[in-house]
Design goal:
The chain is mainly α. Among the domains are: about 70 residues, no CATH class; about 110 residues, Cytochrome c-like domain (Cytochrome Bc1 Complex, Chain D, domain 2), CATH 1.10.760. Helix content is about 40%, strand content about 5%. The protein has a two-stranded antiparallel ribbon. Strands 3-4 form a two-stranded antiparallel sheet. Strands 5-6 form a two-stranded antiparallel sheet. α4 crosses α8. The radius of gyration is 21 Å and the shape is globular. The chain starts with a strand and ends with a helix.
């Protein structure tokens, strides 16, 4: 947990997020260990790694370049709630593992912390695809318009007036964050809302024909639930106007929702009602049409998302 070293001096890859867990307090590490010791033993044989993933020696160099070991220090200039929120976000929650972009050797880019990243997970049975973890800084393409209450409600329930949970975040909410105390959710929200803006939106524009094609598709498939304003309906559908998912640098999550639907986890009773009706459109729209719709969503109502091509949709499909 602290150093990323398994028994036998085997260096771990940061797919196990020891780069975040190193920040945990010793007391919390001991508490986690004590809990794990209460779980009944079961036998499991992990699959054998390929040759390249058995070369753990390279992690000595990687750690020397990108890993800062040690418990997270308190910031005495900040409140107790802010420090608790920082601890939950950066250490226990390891939010940066998904929400921070990575460099070519898969280290988190320190100059772009929480500005949005990518994650591989299932879109439907047997199909893994990229998901985009949105920018959660105070940037306009991030959480600038979210209030503390919006964020606190989302972290606890997976639904607020600003967004509805989808994709890999379902598990995070249903199996983890929903069990937090209200005070911890408020502390996380306080810290996240204090993050300085990072990352910029795209200034792409659509031609009149492109906008008309996207508008027609939106009116046909989306307007009933998300409304002509893009603001969504109360308890019916989340807004697409100002959505960090819609504006994400990588459009993967937006495309996944259009292609495969947006089903909430069975454990999450707080999802928007329309999630039950958010069907998959992969058999109703071509790659070109989905690209047209995505570009319309990413450039309307002040949204600042980059261009999506039909080739990008085909890969995601």
């Amino acid at each position: 947990m602290r150093s990323g070293v398994a028994p036998g001096e085997k260096r771990l890859f940061p797919a196990f997020p020891y780069t975040s867990f190193t920040k945990l307090s010793t007391a919390d590490i001991k508490a986690i260990y004590a809990y794990l010791r209460t779980i009944p033993a079961t036998r499991s044989v992990p699959p054998r790694n390929s040759f390249w993933f058995r070369q753990r020696w390279v992690m000595r160099l990687w750690n020397a370049l990108f890993f800062n070991e040690g418990e997270l220090a308190l910031d005495s200039s900040k409140s107790q709630a802010w420090n608790q929120g920082r601890y939950l976000v950066e250490a226990l929650g390891h939010c940066g593992a998904c929400h921070t972009p990575r460099n070519l050797v898969l280290a988190e880019r320190t100059g772009a912390q929480f500005a949005g990243g990518v994650h591989i997970d299932e879109v439907e049975a047997g199909k893994d695809r990229t998901w985009s973890a949105p920018n959660i800084t105070s940037a306009e393409i991030g959480l600038a318009k979210w209030s503390l209450n919006d964020l606190q409600k989302y972290l606890k329930s997976g639904a607020s007036r600003r967004a509805g949970v989808l994709g890999p975040m379902n598990e995070v909410i249903a199996n983890s964050l929903s069990d937090m105390t209200d005070a911890d959710a408020a502390a996380m929200a306080l810290y996240v809302k204090s993050l300085p803006a990072a990352g910029e939106g795209s200034q792409q524009t659509l031609s009149a024909d492109e906008r008309a094609a996207g508008q027609a598709l939106y009116d046909k498939y989306c307007e009933e639930c998300h409304l002509s304003t893009g603001r969504g309906g109360f308890r019916k559908a989340p807004p697409v106007a100002g959505s960090p998912i819609v504006q994400a640098r990588d459009a993967a999550s937006l495309l996944n929702v259009i292609l495969y639907g947006a089903k909430p986890a069975a454990e999450n009773p707080h999802a928007f009602d329309a999630w039950e009706d958010m069907q998959a459109f992969k058999d109703k729209m071509t790659d070109t049409e989905i690209a047209q719709l995505a570009n319309f969503l990413r450039t309307t109502w002040g949204n600042q998302g980059g261009r999506v091509s039909s080739k990008t949709v085909a890969v995601q499909r």
